[in-house]
Design a protein that fits this description.
Order of helices and strands: HEEEHEEEEHEHHH
Radius of gyration: 36 Å
Helix content: 25-40%
Number of strands: 8
Shape: globular
Structural class: alpha+beta
Distance between the termini: 125 Å
CATH topology of the domain at 50-189: Ribosomal Protein S5, domain 2
């Protein structure tokens, strides 16, 4: 092989080496970079139960060493389909008190007989020094109530009703009185069965 051809081969090899070196400098190695892992978000099942906090108050208990501070939470639990409950609990922290009140409300659920969008008949409920008067209402009236009474009626699924809170203004007494009133409601079928007559004869 002649000297000219040897020189050409050496030149080509040096050019290839230079090109490889420039590629390494142009594309620096990325070290320590974390790869992004695509995760699919799993949708949590939507619960039909709704919770509404009515009151959170700070209470004290006198013990031997002094006063023990805690929080009391009143929560209304319902599914707007005829089931509702009232829960009350105490704890050293607000979040824990609310969680305990929700659990207590789900233990004390009652089934409310709803006639169309209101209650079947007028009724009055009492709890402690408070009493709540409930009256049926026509379509389009809405929930005429306030405070804890409104929360109980809305989460029970009642859309049209008239109410009046009498006596004590305590939210817990008002909520319990409303629960007692709803618990005492009777459907037309139950009354007709007790009287031993047909439903048509009773309504006529």
């Amino acid at each position: 092989m002649s000297e000219e051809k040897l020189n050409e081969v050496v030149v080509e090899e040096t050019v290839e080496v230079v090109d490889a070196a420039t590629e390494q400098t142009e594309k620096p190695q990325r070290r320590g970079k974390k790869r992004r892992i695509e995760t699919t978000e799993v949708e949590k099942p939507v619960s039909e139960w709704e919770e509404r906090v009515v009151q959170i108050s700070r209470v004290t208990k006198v013990v031997k060493g002094g006063k023990k501070l805690s929080f009391r939470a009143i929560v209304i639990v319902g599914n707007k389909k005829g089931q509702v409950g009232v829960g009350c609990a105490k704890a050293a922290e607000v979040i824990v008190a609310i969680q305990k009140a929700i659990a207590d409300g789900r233990k004390n659920l009652i089934t409310v007989p709803i006639f169309k969008t209101t209650i079947p008949h007028p009724i009055t409920g009492r709890s402690g020094a408070g009493s709540v008067m409930l009256r049926p209402a026509s379509e389009g009236t809405g929930v005429i109530a306030g405070g804890a009474v409104r929360s109980v009626l809305e989460l029970a699924g009642i859309e049209n009703i008239l109410s009046k809170s009498l006596g004590s203004k305590s939210p817990l007494n008002a909520a319990n009185a409303t629960m007692e009133a709803l618990k005492s409601l009777r459907t037309f079928n139950d009354v007709a069965r007790r009287r031993g007559i047909a439903l048509k004869d009773m309504l006529n």
